[in-house]
Amino acid sequence: MGARENYEIARKSYENWGIDVEKAIEQLENVSISIHCWQGDDIEGFEVTKRELSGGIDVTGNYPGKAGTPEELRADLEKALSLIPGKHRVNLHAIYAETDGEAVERDQIEPGHFKNWVDWAKRLEIGLDFNPTLFAHEKASDGLTLAHPDKEIRDFWIRHCIQCRRIGEYFGKELGTPALTNIWIPDGYKDIPSDRLTPRKRLKESLDQIFAVNIDEKYNIDSVESKLFGIGSEAYVVGSHEFYLAYALTNDKVCLLDTGHFHPTEAVSNKISSILLFSDKLALHISRPVRWDSDHVVIFDDELREIALEIVRNDALTKVRIGLDFFDASINRIAAWVIGTRNLLKALLYALLMPNKYLKKLQEKGNFTDRLALMEEFKTYPFGAIWDYYCEKNHVPTGESWLDEVKIYEKEVLSKRN
């Protein structure tokens, strides 16, 4: 039987529970995942002045064929997008500016340095998101940026973030969909600090200056991202979850939660409903931490499904900006994009095909036996047949057949790179 026949059989299983499968598919088609460009080149970027990674970020592996030019990176992204159902977005960092061989400092980058990205996105009819790059730079070498005690260094990074917000606004105007410009900083201390408050005061003041510059929210949306610890900031991180949650709520900014930026036993899925009670917007970076913020490729695991369920159960598909953030240089980088993004979409489809309203009623009645039984039984319902149909409907390969296309691309394109 083909995907359509399998779909019709599977659909009946779900319709027995009153689940509108066609509506679920329609909802999924309206979801745009923000796919991070930096998986494709191991976060090297295209700055003329090459710099080592810093900020507690590490990429391991040396799989051949990584992108070395903007054209190669865009071609690789385009290949990945052709294997992922739906219409999605691409997320850029400031270090992916194209400056025609000129060394341009980060506080001097301009929208024009991203014109090629915008032209490419227009051709594909996709949106772009953006991030200031506050690492891999001599002015971040001591692990402090927006919270630095040296005002000159703080001001440099403030100017950088302001320019990045302007670039995000440019994306939104040109592409007709608002960019999410997200600020993450590495600031923190390796060992126990003697003063936790002062760096946070400086960070707050820096953010206030950055956001004092008027940028039209019709085109650019600001978010701030926390972290529990990093390499070199094990004891203290200035931009903690509590800091940024409070800042976002009191300044009408978006709080961004990265699934790798918390304690390994702490679940981001458990935070979503609380934030949505107090804010109508939230952003996520979906990653996979293995014992620490290792940024492994996202897999179809319990926490990914639980995150998707929390978004769907709370009618938040239009409130949550969902992005990916992982980087693995030990495997084919295009495959990494495809695996992670397809898994995230699978999780959302899985959540859309659950009898969520009925399960809520069971909980309200205190019928925890039926609740647990049904939640477990639905794990083996034939949602894979619905997924294959969704892929076929979107003209992308079903099952693992996409891997054949990646292997052909690897042989014909990636293997010829130095």
Automatic annotation (TrEMBL):
Give the domain of life. Answer: Bacteria
Classification via InterPro entries: L-rhamnose_isomerase, Rhamnose_isomerase, Xyl_isomerase-like_sf
Which residues are Mn(2+)-binding?
H261, D293, D295
One Gene Ontology molecular-function label: L-rhamnose isomerase activity
Cofactor binding note: Binds 1 Mn(2+) ion per subunit.
Q: Which HAMAP family match?
A: RhaA
Q: Give the PANTHER family listed for this entry.
A: L-RHAMNOSE ISOMERASE (PTHR30268:SF0)
What's the name of the protein?
L-rhamnose isomerase
Native source species: Thermoactinomyces mirandus
